[in-house]
Design goal:
The complex is a heterodimer of chains A (500) and B (483).
Chain A lengths: L5 H9 L5 H19 L2 E4 L1 H17 L9 E5 L26 H8 L3 E6 L33 H8 L5 E6 L5 H7 L2 E4 L19 E6 L2 H11 L34 E5 L9 H16 L3 E5 L7 H16 L17 H13 L2 H13 L6 H21 L5 E5 L15 H6 L5 H6 L3 E8 L5 E8 L4 H14 L9 H12 L1
Parallel strand pairs in A: 2-3, 2-4, 7-8, 7-9
Antiparallel strand pairs in A: 1-3, 4-6, 5-6, 5-10, 9-11, 10-11
Chain B lengths: L2 E12 L24 H4 L10 H13 L3 E2 L2 E2 L1 E5 L9 E5 L5 E2 L2 E6 L2 E14 L3 E3 L8 E3 L6 E7 L6 H17 L12 E11 L9 E6 L2 H20 L7 E6 L4 E7 L9 E2 L6 E2 L2 H10 L4 H12 L3 H7 L3 H13 L5 H22 L10 H12 L5 H12 L7 H8 L7 H14 L1 H8 L4 H13 L6 H13 L1
Parallel strand pairs in B: 13-14
Antiparallel strand pairs in B: 1-11, 1-12, 2-6, 3-17, 4-5, 4-16, 6-8, 7-8, 8-11, 9-10, 12-13, 14-15
Classes of the chains: A alpha/beta (500), B alpha+beta (483).
């Protein structure tokens, strides 16, 4: 009963079926128990969580509880949390305690949530399998030989394992949606500028955006309500009034609840390189949407296939500059022994960063170098514009665009670790939304023949989050993919617990 | 061979905003190390820059004052390099599209007037300071200065001597102070120049290879560094060598420039647009509002003064060195009854002479001058109407400066009995006495010794206690001796 969705838990708390402290205690026990198997967490803050749960119980007792009061959550360890370690999954910041709260962290704190801890992630959010973390890989609760996706692998795995109802992630090229798909949960990347980036440790500033993981679209909306809003400390934060992202979910749902919805299907999303189980899951999901009254429209995204190369120029370029501040001078890792300034820089950064981070810093430095800037960085920015134009054109004929979130379901740990390009191609469908800045959500829509989940990506035009959530919600009202939980996982836990 | 010197200046002017350009921390000078460094200045993970509008307004004000173009859309870029006092590992600057393009500055040297064109002016942040002393083999980092707003003003290579470069720098410093965007304090580093210096054979069209001399923080060092560098380059070429493009530092103790790094060592800054800062958009209304707030500029004032008071260009340039000095002069002119060109010129001489000397001697600002503009005007009037002689006026001025008789010139003249004797009868009487008492000198004069005349004038002035009107004494003596 402690493992419900936000909506269920919130009702139970109000009905006094259990207290926030009881709930938090249970969550902490499950988190601790799962940790040796999943490694979903980098920091677990039991003491802080219980204190927050007490405060939540007081608020509940006074009767002035908000929708998220007492809801246990966890933040991806790239979001600054005052007084708690914020490591970015890196040795560089392994001991770094954040002196302030990120905007989204403060928003969820104010909303009354209980922070359980910080989740594991690919180092500095660079990775699609959560294998680049200094703190070790996260395992997929559906099959612990498999990766949970990345870079927000810990946040996705924690929700998938029913450890807690919701977590936060960040999405630079698919880092929320791809792990959501690979672990069978919902993950939403909002429109760029909706969630302030203040306190989100920058990977690629023009692409980074925070967003929620939860089991249902409705829960994603509740989380989003607390995460979005204008922030004068982020110059790219959009000066828009706050909105209620769940406002379209409360309407009563007739049988043909999505009649009038035009779903755009780019042939580029259903072609080569798609796993056959993924392809059939797509067909099943689209059939469901047809039943709900939606119509299918063919759209063209001729430049979409350039998303991955464009991304792997722009994101490393920005990263190479953003990560320059980790130099060992003021905070973070510094080499123990060095001979002079240059040697300190070299040793500190050689020791502090892992291979994938170094690879991207090298690529980024190269594409910004004198004589290469025009051919790479500038060209990539021009193509980025073409890709955005593709989507603008497509949305003249459709309301949402659907396709697989990832070309394949979860893969085994180590399978793609030595082949960066294969790893990068796992984000081929998610990257475009980061390049254009438009919102997109991934929801569970099936399983492959080995029993790991498959995700459906629903993309929309700028600021259409409420509609994306409505579309996802109607689908979830008619299906039960999102209700299925990884039952094997408990056995894994008990078996591991016994053997260890 | 005759050589032509070519100089361009890059000047970093600290903008006088209370807060830094991208954080809320104070920019005040002299605080204990690292007490004025906010999270943004420390480059903590996750922090973001937010542009200070005050810095933008000051840049616009400058652009308008030099007649440049204010770009409707300019871009902040990252200049990437590693240094311990550069916390982010990049400096936020403007690269491809600066806020101000073009513009010009009129300078005046003893050789005449000249217009120096500007290439651009762009906004950027300052770095912190590395302190290499007092840390026993280690370096200290003070980030108080990190993020201080700077306007980098780049001139075309149009100056042809160290004197012109100094005149340009002085005029520029005067202007940024005039329009209130910077205190121009060179000792505190609020106004520092880098000089690009090259030489070429007179008449050559292409430029010679240049060297950049960094961080010249006084006009004297600017002049000496350029002079040294010019001598060095000419000697090098005349000895059959070639100038190597490099950055050099001026050592004032040894009065020479030294190589800091060559072009080959030059870093690749990997400039790219800063994704944390949207393009800076400046609309016409904003520009119009700032234009309306601009004070009358020195260039316009010089033209007006030439027309209104017939003031020579050199005097006008000197009087417009600062807004306070110009206001003092203008107030004094206004307080004078007669504003003919003679009295305006006399007044200018007094302001640039005795007043300026007094300011330097007492090491005070113009606001602290004890003689008000109106009081000085009264004194100059007393010279013009021959109440006192110029020589006496100096004595009166000193009394005014000392605050005697409330600084009132007339009261001091009366009290000291300095009224000039202009009564013809009285003067003739003294002349008569002197001629009678100095028969031998009169004889010398009549024998053709011209010098004897001056001796007699001196005797008359002495007898009148210096108060006789010298011109009248001259005339009366001439007449008396001619009899």
């Amino acid at each position: 009963m402690f493992a419900g969705t936000i909506t269920e838990v919130s009702q139970a708390l109000r009905a006094k079926r259990f207290s926030s402290v009881e709930l938090t205690t249970d969550v902490l026990q499950r988190v601790e128990r799962a940790q040796p198997v999943l490694n979903a967490f980098i920091t677990i803050d039991a003491e802080g969580a219980i204190a927050q749960a007490r405060a939540a119980d007081n608020a509940l007792g006074r009767g002035d509880a908000a929708p998220l009061t007492g809801i246990p959550i966890a933040h991806k360890d790239i979001l600054m949390t005052a007084g708690l370690k914020t490591t970015c999954g890196s040795r560089m910041l392994a001991q770094f305690v954040a002196p302030y709260d990120a905007f989204v962290v403060a928003g969820l704190k104010e909303a009354g949530t209980v922070l359980i801890g910080k989740t594991n992630m690919d180092e500095f959010a660079m990775g699609s399998s959560n294998e680049t973390s200094w703190f070790g890989p996260v395992r997929n609760p559906w099959n612990t030989d498999y990766v949970p996706g990345g870079s927000s692998g810990g946040s996705a795995a924690a929700v998938a394992a029913r450890l807690l109802p919701a977590t936060t992630g960040t999405d630079t090229g698919g880092s929320i949606r791809q792990p959501a798909a690979l672990t069978g949960v919902c993950g939403l990347k909002p429109t760029y500028g909706s969630c302030s980036r203040y306190g989100l440790v920058a990977f690629a500033s023009s692409l980074d955006q925070a967003g929620p993981f939860a089991r249902t679209a409705e829960d994603c909306g509740l989380m989003l309500n607390a995460m979005c809003g204008h922030d004068s400390r982020d110059s790219t934060s959009l000066p828009r009034p706050r909105e209620d992202y769940t406002r379209l979910l409360r309407e009563s749902a007739p049988a043909k609840s999505l009649s009038g919805l035009r779903i755009g299907l780019p042939k580029e999303y259903f072609g080569e390189g798609i796993d056959s189980d993924v392809a059939s899951a797509m067909q099943g999901a689209l059939a469901q949407f047809t039943q709900l009254g939606a119509t299918m429209v063919d759209v063209e995204l001729p430049s979409a296939n350039l998303s991955v190369p464009v991304y792997y120029v722009i994101a490393p370029a920005e990263a190479s500059s953003n990560l320059s501040r980790f130099d060992g001078v003021r905070y973070g890792h510094r080499a123990a022994r060095y001979d002079g300034l240059t040697d300190m820089y070299k040793k500190t950064r050689a020791e502090g960063f892992g291979d994938e981070v170094k690879r991207r810093i090298l690529v980024g430095t190269y594409v910004l170098s004198h004589g290469y800037y025009d051919a790479y960085y500038l060209k990539a920015q021009q193509v980025r514009r073409l890709i955005a134009d593709d989507f603008t054109r497509a949305y003249q004929n459709c309301d949402v665009i659907m396709g697989p979130t990832a070309p394949t379901p979860a893969f085994k740990l180590g399978d793609k670790l030595d082949d960066p390009v294969q790893m990068y191609l796992n984000d081929m469908f998610t990257i475009a939304a980061n390049l254009t800045g438009a919102p997109a959500i991934s929801i569970p829509c099936g399983f492959d023949n080995t029993g790991v989940p498959i995700g459906l990506q629903i993309q929309g035009n700028y600021f259409s989050e409420a509609n994306l959530l409505r579309v996802a919600h109607r689908f979830q009202q008619a299906t039960d993919w999102h209700l299925r939980s990884p039952s094997d996982f408990t056995r894994h836990v008990s078996r591991e617990a016994v053997t260890s | 061979m005759t050589w032509e010197v070519v100089i361009g200046l890059e000047t970093h002017t600290q903008l006088g905003t209370a807060a830094k350009i991208f954080s809320g921390a104070s920019t005040a000078f002299g605080a204990p190390p690292n007490t004025q460094a906010a999270a943004v200045d420390l480059a903590l993970p996750g922090v973001l820059p937010v542009l200070n509008k005050g810095a933008v307004e000051r840049a616009i004000r400058f652009g308008l004052a030099v007649g440049g173009t204010i770009n409707a859309r300019s871009i902040f870029a990252r200049k990437n390099y590693f240094y311990p006092d550069l916390p982010k590992g990049y400096q936020i600057s403007q690269f491809e599209i600066p806020i101000v393009a073009g513009g010009s500055l009129a300078i005046v040297t003893p050789q005449g007037e000249k217009t120096v064109h500007l290439t651009r002016a762009h906004l950027e942040e300052d770095a912190g300071k590395s302190l290499h002393e007092d840390f026993h083999g280690m370096s200290g980092i003070d980030l108080n200065r990190a993020g201080t707003p700077l306007l980098e003003i780049v001139s075309e290579p149009e100056m042809r001597s160290a004197a012109e470069a100094v005149a340009y720098a002085k005029t520029l410093r005067g202007l940024v102070r005039w329009i209130g965007i910077s205190d121009g304090n060179m000792q505190e580093g609020s106004f520092r120049c880098d000089a690009n210096v090259s030489v070429r054979p007179a008449g050559a069209v292409t430029l010679g290879t240049r060297c950049e001399i960094k961080n010249l923080n006084s006009f004297r060092f600017l002049e000496k560094a350029i002079d040294y560098e010019v001598r060095r380059q000419i000697a090098l070429i005349e000895d059959g060598g070639a100038v190597v493009q490099e950055t050099r530092l001026y050592d004032p103790d040894r009065d020479e420039t030294r190589s800091m790094r060559s072009k080959e060592d030059a870093q690749d800054y990997r400039y790219f647009p800063d994704p944390d800062l949207p393009p800076l958009i400046i609309d016409d209304a904003w520009i119009a509002r700032i234009r309306a707030e601009l004070p009358e500029l020195p260039a316009a004032m010089k033209i007006r003064w030439a027309a209104q008071y017939g003031l020579p260009a050199y005097d006008a340039a000197a009087l417009t060195a600062s807004r306070e000095l110009a206001a003092y002069f203008e107030d004094a002119v206004a307080a004078m009854g007669n504003t003919g060109s003679d009295s305006a010129k006399t007044l200018a001489n007094w302001v640039l002479g005795e007043v300026a000397a007094g300011v330097n001697r007492a090491e005070i600002e113009m606001q602290g001058v004890p003689v008000s503009a109106a009081q000085l005007a009264r004194l100059v009037e007393r010279i013009a109407d021959a109440t006192i002689s110029a020589k006496m006026a100096k004595e009166v001025f000193d009394s005014m400066w000392a605050g005697e008789h409330g600084g009132d010139a007339d009261a001091i003249i009366a009290a000291k009995g300095l009224l000039q004797i202009s009564d013809a009868g009285a003067i003739e009487a003294i002349v008569d006495e002197v001629v009678k008492a100095n028969a031998a000198v009169v004889a010398d004069y009549k024998a053709g010794r011209v010098k004897a005349f001056n001796s007699l004038v001196g005797q008359v002035m002495k007898a009148s206690h210096g108060k006789a009107n010298p011109e009248q004494v001259h005339a009366a003596l001439k007449g008396r001796l001619a009899r």
